[in-house]
């Protein structure tokens, strides 16, 4: 399944699954319909609330039981007429053009892996922009910075002049756990999602002097995630996926998930002493080709008007525009406005 979070015309947040290229199934309503029609349940809404709640984190808290219930609901809808409605007359099938896709999940914790693709670390070393990463490091992402597909990254020109992109594959955990081995890790994987690790490089350079960096990556809107979560059963080998990031149609990053130095089971196991909650997200590192380590960083850094497309095989395309602070908020940042009036 390709699991989405969306807002309908009433601005209600719902979870769904792609039914076709242009339609989305409301999974909670579909589950109630399945329980009524097939399960012959009389308290079908109450059971649907428990099995397939209209919240992605809650769905993953249900683990395999909830994911299996969602699949049965999706299959049930596929056997019915396209004009079906829910038990109370609700919409079951939405046109994608009639809803707004949001970030598929807002995790309790977002574990961030850096330095895992050696090609990225090697290009950083050649560019003189590095510190020891042997063979990886971890930090926690600011989950309030998460945005979804087609939502804009807001360029904070008063904070940075070197805005960069980083394409990454991320893992969504389907159950809570801690202190598990790499061999046990696969039982925790619920699905995969695309992550674009937006980074302010000038801020990062300052932070790296102390051996850490997080502010440079955790600024508001710096965490595009989506466009949906592809469940693990549809991606039998997450280390066999082509990866590409484009800016305004131009290929910038192109690589393959097989080039990870440390594989996903080891990553998940290594972080597990910190404890996972169901629905937590773990990134796996970016590939080579970022602007900062190119031959002409100034020409490649992001600017308002740019459109980024992150594509990972078997998952899809995560697309986000870059817009100015002034366009987002209708005014210049206070810091810049003050500078201009004092000149």
Give structural notes.
There is one protein chain. This protein is of the alpha+beta class and 343 residues long. It has two domains: 2-101, Roll (SH3 type barrels); 103-325, Fumarylacetoacetate hydrolase, domain 2. It is built from eleven helices and 19 strands. Strands 1, 2, 3, 4, 5, 6, 7, 8, 11, 12, 14 and 17 form a twelve-stranded mixed β-sheet that branches. A five-stranded mixed β-sheet has the order 9-19-18-15-16. The chain has a two-stranded antiparallel sheet with strand order 10-13. β15 and β16 (250-256) form a beta hairpin. It is globular, with a radius of gyration of 21 Å.
What is the CATH topology descriptor of the largest domain? Answer: Fumarylacetoacetate hydrolase, domain 2
Rg, rounded, reads 21 Å
Largest sheet: 12 strands, mixed
State the CATH class of the largest domain. Alpha Beta
Named at the architecture level, the CATH assignment of the largest domain is Alpha-Beta Complex
Features:
Fumarylacetoacetate hydrolase, domain 2; globular; single chain; alpha+beta; 19 strands; 11 helices; five-stranded mixed β-sheet; about 350 residues
């Amino acid at each position: 399944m390709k699991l989405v979070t969306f807002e309908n015309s009433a601005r209600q947040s719902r979870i769904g699954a792609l039914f076709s290229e242009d339609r989305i199934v409301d999974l909670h309503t579909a589950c109630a319909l399945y329980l009524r029609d097939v399960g012959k349940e009389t308290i079908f809404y109450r059971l649907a609330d428990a099995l397939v709640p209209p919240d992605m984190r809650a769905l993953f808290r249900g683990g395999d039981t909830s994911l299996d219930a969602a699949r049965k609901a999706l299959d049930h809808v596929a056997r019915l007429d396209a004009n079906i409605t829910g038990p109370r007359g609700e919409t079951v099938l939405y046109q994608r053009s009639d809803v707004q896709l949001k970030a598929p999940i807002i995790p309790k914790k977002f574990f961030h892996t850096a330095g895992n693709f050696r090609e990225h670390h090697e290009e950083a070393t050649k560019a003189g922009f590095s510190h020891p990463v042997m063979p990886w490091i971890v930090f926690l992402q600011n989950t309030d910075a998460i945005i979804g597909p087609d939502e804009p990254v807001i360029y904070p020109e008063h904070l940075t002049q070197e805005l960069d992109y980083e394409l990454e594959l991320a893992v969504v955990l389907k159950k809570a756990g801690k202190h598990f081995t790499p061999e046990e890790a696969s039982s925790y994987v619920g699905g995969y999602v695309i992550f674009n690790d937006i980074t302010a490089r000038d801020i990062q350079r300052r932070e790296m002097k102390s051996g850490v960096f997080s502010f440079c990556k955790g600024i508001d809107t710096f965490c595009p995630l989506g466009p949906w979560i592809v469940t693990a059963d549809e991606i039998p080998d997450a280390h066999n996926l082509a990866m590409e990031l484009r800016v305004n149609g131009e290929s910038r990053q192109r690589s393959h998930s097989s080039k990870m130095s440390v594989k996903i089971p080891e990553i998940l196991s290594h972080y597990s002493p910190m404890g996972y909650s169901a629905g937590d997200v773990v990134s796996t590192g970016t590939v080579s080709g970022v602007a900062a380590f190119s031959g002409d960083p100034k020409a490649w850094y992001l600017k308002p008007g740019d459109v980024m497309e992150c594509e990972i095989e078997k998952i899809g395309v995560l697309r986000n525009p870059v817009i100015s602070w002034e366009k987002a908020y209708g005014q210049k940042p206070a810091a810049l406005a003050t500078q201009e009036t004092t000149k």
